[in-house]
Design brief:
CATH topology of one domain: Rossmann fold
Number of helices: 43
CATH architecture of one domain: 3-Layer(aba) Sandwich
Strand order of the largest sheet: 8-9-10-7-11
Strand content: 5-15%
Distance between the termini: 63 Å
Radius of gyration: 33 Å
Shape: elongated
Number of strands: 13
């Protein structure tokens, strides 16, 4: 079923993965069903704003026919009208049931498998067999020679297994990886764990422990020991994980089941079969399909069948070699093609070592390459530097040729199977198969061109990212990500090359600065920190110390360090150096950014007065120099006011800012710098709302911050939102929901390496468990470790509160001496840092400890003091808790009659939140 308005093609209820250009061709043909649509009409419809060669149409038409499952020479759907165009010949029924797909579970994305546009020949039995192997063994290896089709088979098995694994199927392409130490990182990146940790394999195994998924480790042969070690550890630690491997040799790991893949079937040498008999063999079927892609009129005749059979035998049934040969049928014809191959193989006999099949593939590549024109070969060598997909402009830049020549040459190379053509929203995107890429890179080195081409590659990556950064505010997120996201691997490759080129450290710095928005968008904060640290070391050599480049690098280094290593002194040192340069150069943007981050550091290390002064400096500069920055500055002033106990002032400020943000906020875009400013605002506002007596509003505000972060798909912002939502849920007594949010937070912290959030995760997991625990001692130990972790990471903001909560649970466990010492430390810390926001709650907790020690009079006095102070700072929530405890204390003695007169007026100040724990307890007491 085709749904043009949804850009959707279904087979049954499952969506067919098809490129947008191929889908546009199909839509056009279906709209004109029965009529001939000329090639010019299709080109004008599918590429309305771009001039492309007719070969682009052929590439996409071939891909479309493979998706539709058309047999070679049989037009079930699309007929070629020679010399005129194409006609859609299948019956077409119109309808309006497009909405029915919305609930289809097949639309959920739980994999990273590439778009399937190629039919598979002769592998149905082995695909089914390997699928059965995976149900019986947790490690299955597909072993065979290069180009034999291991990856194709593995991807087909993976496609069939999608519904069997709750947490998805994930492809890890190891072909481009050179360093065996990075195998765990490659696996982690593929499944979405982007943190870079010292022991990545241990962290990865821990992350996978409770998951059910299939990992496809593709092209392991050059990293065989590292792949085997990673597979062994993952299988030992994560019982729900299964692994499918492709390699030229087995991993030799216990429990491994090995399937050796043979070449495609070819007719026996003694047979002199006709075309019909030859087409029963999978190698012949593949040859004919690829030849038909190149020469639409190609039809296997009885006369040519023996020659085609000999070609396929000569190529050992190796799929890629057969494809390369078949695409030259239009030039040589079948019989001349066989002669060409025989001549080439005789020339190479005895010259190459290694397995026979490997020599066959190399010989085929040699032969295909030798048939290219000089400009085709030069462009193919140049684009071999691209790690990921690339477009016409990219190829033009690296090959140093006009875009029109690059476009026509790429189309010719794709038609000859030397390039794979995919499609995306920008048009055709090309990529090299790894065997072809390695072959061409070697030629690039031998021809002495590598240095020049890699420099052009680095400059191309820079220019695209710099242009995208300048357009960031005007472009929708999806479009920006589509343009820049695919450059991430090329950015890494360019940095690796530039880092080795000591002659030009300035290029390394420029690349690093250009990559900052990309790392930020994908929350690759640790990668950003490492890269920026390396670039900072090159500033003097590049002559860029004291320049705008140093400001940018140091500002990002400081921020990234805060979120990955925690509140380290080196972070604030970097930001102070950047502030000094920005002030000297009159760079207002970075001066404000540094002031904001320094103020944040001071606030969250408990230096509230210093933080307030820094943030007030920020606000004063923003008011006159850049009013658009006031939201961020005033939000952090609101944070400082919160900690200092100026709750009414903080709430008024934050609600005014939120109202202003709602009026001016358009569609959500990526975070401009680390965390999104509106999410930061709503996170703080939610806590102030709860403290001042609006628990339902607080929950809604926290939920809106989470939803915004999800819509942006910005992981750092999401961890911020989750870390602020956890205390709201805990205070409201929604412990199970708090636990669920902690689990989400923990997953993002683990995936992305946001170390500064880890103590928060551990603390709220422990307190949610303690609040519901029948084994309090076990959960208390986890809570004690979490509080110690705040100390160890100098995360001192809210530390008095964390100590207070620990003291309360210690008292509940009967450890009254420990509880007394802990609450004493909490009150002393709050007094030293003037952290007044939680003092009423600390006094209440101390009163509960005294009451447990039968010191009722002292407890009563502390509760009255707590209520008085809560009223002074505007903390209605703490006042209710203290009043409730006092009511319990009175209810146990002769003052029970005074409970209503004291408690009712406080409860009466609440207009919401009556389903929260504290108000339910108060209501029961009043009843």
């Amino acid at each position: 079923m085709l749904f043009p308005e949804r850009q959707l093609l279904l087979q049954g209820e499952a969506p067919v993965r098809i490129g947008c250009r191929a889908l546009d061709i199909l839509t056009t043909l279906v709209e004109h069903s029965g009529d001939v649509v000329s090639k010019n009409e299709l080109l004008a419809r599918v590429w309305p704003d771009t001039t492309v060669q007719e070969s682009n149409l052929k590439v996409n038409m071939a891909a479309l026919r493979r998706v539709l499952g058309e047999e070679p020479g049989v037009a079930r759907y699309i007929a070629t009208v020679v010399g005129r165009g194409y006609r859609f010949v299948a019956p077409v029924l119109s309808g309006s049931a497009g909405h029915a797909f919305e609930a289809s579970p097949a639309s959920a994305r739980n994999h990273n498998l590439p778009t399937a546009t190629t039919r598979i020949f002769g592998r149905a039995e082995v695909i089914d067999a390997i699928g059965r192997d995976l149900t019986e063994s947790r490690l299955v290896s597909i072993v065979g020679a290069g180009g034999i089709g291991k990856t194709t088979v593995a991807l087909a098995v993976a496609e069939h297994a999608l519904r069997q694994f709750k947490d998805g199927v994930w492809l890890i392409d190891l072909a481009l990886l050179k360093d065996p130490d990075w195998v765990p990182n490659a696996i982690a990146t593929a499944i979405g764990v982007v943190a870079r940790l010292p022991d990545m394999l241990a962290a990865l195994s821990d992350f996978l422990r409770e998951r059910e998924l299939l990992l496809v480790l593709d092209s392991c042969e050059h990293l065989i020991d590292a792949a085997a070690s990673a597979a062994n550890r993952i299988l030992a630690d994560a019982a729900g994980v299964r692994i499918l491997v492709t390699s030229r040799e087995p991993l030799m790991v216990n429990g491994e089941r090995v399937r050796r893949l043979k070449g495609l079937d070819t007719p026996p040498a003694a047979a002199s079969s006709c075309a019909k008999e030859a087409l029963e063999f999978s190698a012949i079927q593949l040859f004919v399909e690829r030849a038909s892609d190149r020469l639409e009129s190609f039809d296997l005749s009885d006369a040519d069948a023996p020659a085609v059979a000999e070609i396929c035998r000569r190529l050992d049934g190796i799929a890629i070699a057969i494809e390369l040969a078949a695409t030259r049928v239009d030039v040589f014809g079948v019989r001349s093609l066989l002669k060409q191959l025989d001549d080439r193989f005789r020339l190479l006999t005895g010259r190459r070592g290694g397995p026979e099949r490997h020599r066959t593939l190399t010989a085929t590549l040699d032969w295909s390459y030798s048939l290219l024109s000089a400009h085709e070969a030069a462009l193919l060598r140049a684009v071999s530097v691209f790690v990921g997909v690339f477009d016409i402009d990219g190829a033009s830049a690296l090959a140093h040729v006009a875009p029109s020549l690059a476009a026509s040459t790429l189309a010719q190379l794709a038609a000859k199977s030397l390039l794979a053509a995919d499609v995306d929203h920008d048009g055709i995107a090309y990529r090299l198969l790894e065997s072809t890429r390695s072959y061409c890179l070697e030629h690039l080195r031998l021809d002495g061109e590598e240095h020049a081409v890699r420099r052009r590659h680095a400059e191309r990556v820079c220019s695209v990212l710099e242009q995208a950064a300048s357009e960031r505010a005007q472009r929708p997120d999806g479009e920006w990500v589509a343009t820049c996201g695919r450059l991430l691997d090329d950015l890494r490759a360019a940095l690796a090359w530039a880092g080795r080129d000591a002659a030009d450290p300035a290029l390394y710095i420029r690349l690093t600065v250009a990559g900052l928005p990309l790392w930020n968008h994908f929350s690759l904060t640790e990668e950003c920190r490492v890269r920026v640290s390396q670039a900072v070391e090159e500033l003097d050599a590049a002559g860029l110390a004291g320049t705008a480049a140093e400001i940018q690098l140091l500002a990002w280094l400081g921020g990234a360090t805060l979120f990955t290593l925690g509140l380290e002194l080196q972070a604030v040192d970097a930001m102070r150096r950047a502030l000094e340069i920005a002030t000297r150069l009159g760079d207002t943007e970075h001066r404000l950014r540094c002031l904001r981050m320094i103020g944040t550091y001071e606030v969250f290390t408990g230096e509230y007065a210093a933080g307030m002064r820094t943030l007030e400096d920020f606000a004063a500069i923003a008011a006159t120099k850049d009013p658009s920055a006031q939201l961020e500055g005033e939000t952090h002033i609101g944070v400082a006011e919160l900690f200092l106990g100026r709750l009414h002032s903080s709430r008024r400020r934050l609600e005014r800012l939120d109202e202003r943000a709602l009026q001016h906020d358009g569609p959500t875009r990526g975070a401009g710098y680390l965390s999104d400013r509106i999410i930061d605002l709503r996170c703080v506002l939610s806590q102030v709302q709860w403290l001042t007596g609006s628990p339902d509003a607080a929950a809604r505000t926290a939920a809106s911050a989470i939803e915004r972060a999800r819509s942006m798909q910005h992981h750092l912002s999401l961890t911020t939102a989750l870390s602020y939502a956890c205390p709201i849920l805990f205070w409201n007594g929604h412990y199970e929901e708090c636990g669920r949010h902690v689990a989400m937070l923990d997953e993002h912290v683990t995936r992305h390496g946001f170390v500064s959030r880890r103590p928060v995760t551990h603390f709220y997991r422990a307190v949610a468990a303690c609040a519901q625990s029948d084994r309090l001692e076990d959960d208390l130990r986890a809570l004690e470790r979490a509080v110690a972790e705040f100390h160890a990471t100098t995360h001192l903001a809210r530390l008095p509160f964390y100590l207070g909560v620990l003291a309360e649970f210690l008292a509940r466990a009967g450890r009254l001496c420990d509880a007394e010492a802990t609450i004493g430390a909490a009150l002393a810390s709050a007094e030293t840092k003037d952290e007044r926001w939680c003092v009423p709650e600390l006094l209440r907790i101390r009163a509960s400890i005294l009451a447990a020690q039968s010191q009722v009079g002292e407890a009563e006095a502390l509760l009255v003091e707590s209520m008085t102070m809560a009223q002074q700072i505007g903390a209605l929530a703490w006042r209710l808790r203290a009043a409730t405890d006092l009511a319990r204390l009175w209810g146990a003695g002769s003052r029970g009659a005074h409970v209503r007169g004291m408690l009712q007026p406080i409860v009466g100040q609440f207009t919401e939140g009556f389903a929260t724990r504290d108000l339910e307890v108060a209501a029961r007491l009043l009843a």
